[in-house]
Structures are given as structure tokens and as C-alpha cells.
Amino acid sequence: MHANFARLLTFSSMLAAAAYAQEQPIVIRAGTLLDGKGGVQRNVDVVVQGGKIQKIGPAAGKASYDLRTATVLPGMIDTHVHIAWHFGPDGRYQPRDTSQTAAMGYAMENAYATLMGGFTTVQSVGSPIDGDLRTAINRGVLPGPRVLTSLRAINNGNLTPEQIREAVRKMAADGSDLIKIFASKSIRDGGGATLTDEQIQAACGEAKAQKLRAIVHVYQPATIKAVVSAGCTAVEHGSLADLDSLQFIAAHGTYFDPNIGLVAQNYLSHRANFLGIGNYTEEGMAAMEKGIPASLAVFKQALSVPGMKIVYGTDAVAGAHGHNVEELIYRVQKGGQDPKAAITSATSLSAESLNLGDKIGTLAAGMEADIVAVEGDPVKDIATMRHVIFVMKGGQVFKNR
Fold first, then answer.
1. Alpha carbon separation from 85 to 17, 92, 126, 250 (Å, rounded)
2. Residue 399: strand pairing partners
3. Which of 5, 33, 106, 270 is least surrounded, with the fewest CB atoms within 10 Å of its CB?
4. Phi first, then psi: what are they for 399, rounded to 5°?
5. If you average pLDDT over every residue of the chain, what do you get?
6. What does the alpha-carbon distance between residue 49 and residue 65 come to, in Å, rounded to a whole number?
């Protein structure tokens, strides 16, 4: 927690200049523009003022940012991260910090790395410190993606339905942007059901009553169907789903967030950092390794289901922040997803799933000026998404080359 934090502080001196710049139109000259909904334009200008996109079309005069050799697209959205998870000074996963100041520092580092990777919005599910991080970033003093958070999660199978409803009401009162629910065990523990249908209905029903979305950690087909039937917003993981349960998801318009290309691989590559803590055992690691091809098979099957709304979430934990785009590359290279569809998933479709489709996720007049650029053409080579050279969030430039 040193080099990245030092870089964070350099942005504070840029704020006055950025505020002044927003009084003047900013012209971004794009060689290729992907609008986030499958549209492609060549040699076009994006005019930004007051933090929003004013127009896309020819602009007179010199460009503020010349990105004619790059591909410009909306700031990407990750609908499932754990932004506060980190490794401690000894390199080991640190689920609890004795110092909340240190914990906030790690969270800000993760936020900075995520923003530099081209992700201008994340949904973090969920740690109480996420709320403090959200507040700090919203003040505009330190750089980071827009943060939505559940603050906590419903994960106690011993609660009565009424106690679950009360827990949801408390999360809403505390400022949660959404409700996170665990309806299954970790895949490291087999992924079995932990909530009854009645408990699931209580959680998602109360979330809806509080005008909040509900996303659910769930694996097995029967529990997936219960989650969908209860009106929950999104199925997270779902790596034990069968065709029938996938079709059930699609038929009800529920979002599906499979998390197949980063989280398990990150755990395995950082095995020594996690082993011996909680349920991070050799058996658990073996279960995750076995689950990688199974999750990929479910993803491929989901792509074939008409009407399936696959959003973009990585489940990024300690060690994965800043590498969020690896999920996108994996979905295309290993999963066979069309590159433009994958980018749409990580932009406008994910924005829609957050009820923010009228603000972010698309490059169009009137939208928030969340704009990134990559060197090369990701439609031809999705791996170019690793090479983010420009990041603007809300009209402020945080990275340029």
C-alpha cells in the first residue's frame, strides 16, 4: 500500500484544472467508436461539457484528445466486485483490519487500479467500508470508479422470513444501493442451498418493497428457479445450472452474471495468499479448479439461450482488482462470445441491470461522460482491451496514455 496510494494523491492537484476544463468543451477525436449497444462509427468526434456528452459528430477546431489510432468506448461496468478485499503487509489475505484507516487505504488502492483498468462503475457486494469509499470518491477528491454497494449481505439461514425482511429494511436505511443475498454455500463447500424458498421470497420481496434490486449468490438449478420466481434481479455465479434453469432465467427477464474468467483463476494463482484462512483449503481450491471447465460449459450453454441477459461481473477479490477485463477476454477467447456482444454486456447491458441505463454504459448525447479508449481494435482482437490508454469519468480525465 505505497506506490499506488502515492499516485492517488497526485490527482488532488489536478482538481482545479479539471473543474476549469469542464467550463470549456472537450473534444475527443476517435478513430473508432463503439457506442456500447453494438454500434460502430469511424473517425468521429465526441464533445463533452459539464460532465456529460453534448454530441457525437463533427466538431470544429483542434481536438482536446487525439485518439484517432485508438478505439473509444463507454467506461466499463463490473456488477460484482469486493472492492475492499486485499492482501495485508505479509502478503496474506486479510479479511479483518485492526486499523480502519489502513482498510480504507487498501480500498482506495483497489478503486484506483480498477479505474485505471477502464472500469468507471463497480457494484461492490458488500462490506460496510464500501459506503465510506463511495462517499470519498463522490466527493471528487480521490480517483475511483462510481461505487454502488450492498454494505452487507443476507447470509444467515437461521433467520426467520420476518427477520430477513427486517435485515433488508435495515440495509436500506443504512444506504445500501442493492441487497446481496446468499442462497447457496460457497462452491468450495459444494454450493448447496442455504435458504428456503420462503426465505428467498422474503428477501427479494422486501428488497422490491424498498425499491432496491436484489442479486443472489446461487448455484443449483432448483434454487436458481426459486430465486427467479421470487423476483430477484440477478443470478450470480450459477455454475451448476442446467439448460432448464437457464431457460427459466431468460424467460423471466432475470439477469445472469456467471463470473467465469477471473475469480477462480485468481484464487488459484494466489493459492499461497489464501490457504489456511477460513474455507480456503486444499479441498476448496480443488473444487474451484474443477469448477472452471464446468462454469465455462454453463456460459456457452447460456449464450445459446434466446433472450438471455448476461451481464458483466467478475467477483474480483484480493489480487484481482485492476485485472477486471480478464473476464471479458476469457468470455470471448474461451467462451466464444461475440466481441461486440461481450463489450455490450460490460457497458449498456450492465448499466441497464443497475437501473442506470439512462446515465451510463452508452456513448450518446446526454449521457454521463464516462469514456475509455484502448490501443487497437477489440472487435478484431479482444486482448487489446488490456491496453487502456485513456480514462474519463464524469468528464474528468484520469488517464491519458
1. 33, 11, 10, 32
2. 391
3. 5
4. -150, 135
5. 94
6. 14
SS3 (DSSP) at 35: coil
CA distances from 307 to 46, 84, 251, 302, 310 (A): 32, 34, 7, 10, 9
Whole-number Cα distances in Å, 293 to 238, 290, 296, 317: 13, 7, 5, 20
pTM of the model: 0.94
Q: Which domains does the chain have, with CATH numbers?
A: 3-75+362-400 (2.30.40.10), 76-353 (3.20.20.140)
Q: Tell me how far apart the terminal alpha carbons of the chain are, to the nearest angstrom.
A: 24
pLDDT tens-digit readout, 198-216: 999 999 999 999 999 999 9
Burial class (CB within 10 angstroms; exposed 0-12, middle 13-18, buried 19+) of 96? exposed
At residue 16 the predicted structure's pLDDT band, cuts being 50, 70 and 90, is very low
C-beta of residue 86 within 8 angstroms of C-beta of residue 106:
yes
C-alpha 188/C-alpha 6 separation (Å) is 37
Secondary-structure breakdown of the chain: helix, strand, coil percentages, each rounded to the nearest 5: 40, 25, 40
Residue among 54, 119, 36, 41 nearest 362 (CA): 36
The three-state secondary structure class of 18 is helix
